[in-house]
Protein: HTH araC/xylS-type domain-containing protein
Organism: Chitinophaga japonensis
Amino acid sequence: MKWITREHPKIDRIASPWLIKRFIDPDAEIIYVPFSDVLSQAASLDAIPFDIPGVEHTHYADECTFDYLVKKYRITDPAVLAMAPIVRGADTDRHDMAPQASGLWAISAGLAYNYNDDHELLDKGMLIYDALYSWARHLQHEKHTQQPYEHLLLEMFNRFFKPKQREGSHMPAWAQELKEMIQDHIDSSLSLKELSKDLDINPSYLSREFSKHFNNLSFGEYIRKQRIDRAIQLMEDPAYSLTEISYLTGFSDQSHFTRIFRKYTGQNPSTYRKNLLKK
């Protein structure tokens, strides 16, 4: 069977094909086309469209396409069920859902950066999800720091040597530069790994220190807030549709935009905009 979705995949449009080929349709042909061509090409090729708004196999509420496929095809494999919140967290910028979500996002963003050909990217992504599946099935309880002395060293470092933020200290230069970089690229995919490279700062340090200088928000929370603030600015211009605003502010699709917008404002985007334009 043919399965079709929009081009330039990162998370869900790699994870879902992996799930389809490994558990649903081993002979599946995955097709990537421009967003505007998905439905017309699906009809002409007799293909199943997925991970776009308005089709069956897509996001619902807080869940992504990977979740829907698991439910629809009644996949009960424990390793796949363990992978689901990792994929969901990475795909919806909810890295708090699973400790591995931010790592999956970083790897996926890096792959998409390195490979321009979507099918080559899918081939590499299949290896990543095969590895994640093996971890979920066999290695979830393994730790890298297995030796007792390693745990002791980590404990001693955190207790006596880990630097503490001084009260009343000003935002350091790297944090100010990072703030400006985020504002300049709020409409594109952002990851701490890519930003840390531009800043020449260790990504682990950046992740650890971020909330101290950004209103006690995690990187994902801060990005989502900035995107919502930018969306509200764009809503003041009637020339932009809500679909256009969702993509201009870096959301994966309008349903994702609507969910996050409602979380931050308590209203649907359409209702909020209507009230905004009345003022």
About this structure: The chain is about 60% helix and 5% strand. The longest helix spans residues 118-139. Residues 172-279 form a domain with the Arc Repressor Mutant, subunit A fold (CATH 1.10.10.60).
